[in-house]
Specification:
Adhesion_dom_fimbrial, fimbrium, signal, 10 strands, five-stranded antiparallel sheet, Fimbrial-type adhesion domain-containing protein, about 180 residues, globular, Adhesion_dom_sf
Length: about 180
């Protein structure tokens, strides 16, 4: 090997070492988390024995909304297996809610035409969900029915007539 080729070889090797050193500085750790459950259930909304993913909150006047005279509406998430039989998890479950369009003052953001009205989403004890609290744990004693409540409420003083539309997705974690 002549001197020029040796020099080129040494420069190439040192460059390779430097590029590896630069790459070695860009490392990190990724953690992968999952779970294995003994079963999963199909979850559907239910209000007044009607299975649907739409919960009806009722019709109110502007004054009723402003004065807080709207009614909490009970609804359930019901668990069924693939044979449409009630599905009872082996242990407790955690249900978390995420608003589709965000949280507004006191509830799920309204995308309808009514102003200053939101949907207050609550657990069975009427404790509201929001940005700082979005989940609840149900013990196995609740079997296949998980109760919740929702209510139209005022989010300001400019309540106007119109439609109220809000949506939230839920995640069920079997514990």
């Amino acid at each position: 090997m002549n001197k020029f080729n040796k020099m080129l070889f040494i420069v190439a090797l040192s460059g390779f070492g430097l590029s590896n050193a630069a790459i070695a500085g860009n490392t990190g750790t990724i953690r992968f988390i999952g779970s294995v459950t003994s079963q999963t259930c199909n979850i559907v909304g239910e209000q007044d024995n009607i299975y649907s993913n739409t919960i009806t909150l009722g019709d109110y006047t502007k004054d009723e909304v402003l004065d807080g005279r709207t009614t909490e509406k009970l609804f359930n998430l019901r668990a069924f297996n693939d044979n449409q039989q009630e599905c009872t998890p082996q242990g407790s479950i955690e249900i978390s809610w995420t608003p589709i369009n965000g949280w507004d003052q006191g509830g799920l953001m309204n995308t309808g035409t009514a102003n200053d009205v939101v949907v207050k989403l609550m657990d069975k004890d009427s404790v509201a969900f929001g940005p700082l609290r979005n989940n609840v744990i149900y013990s196995q004693s609740f079997a296949a029915t998980y109760p919740f409540k929702a209510q139209l409420i005022s989010s300001g003083t400019g309540v106007s007539a119109g439609s109220v539309r809000a949506a939230a997705s839920f995640i069920v974690v079997y514990q």
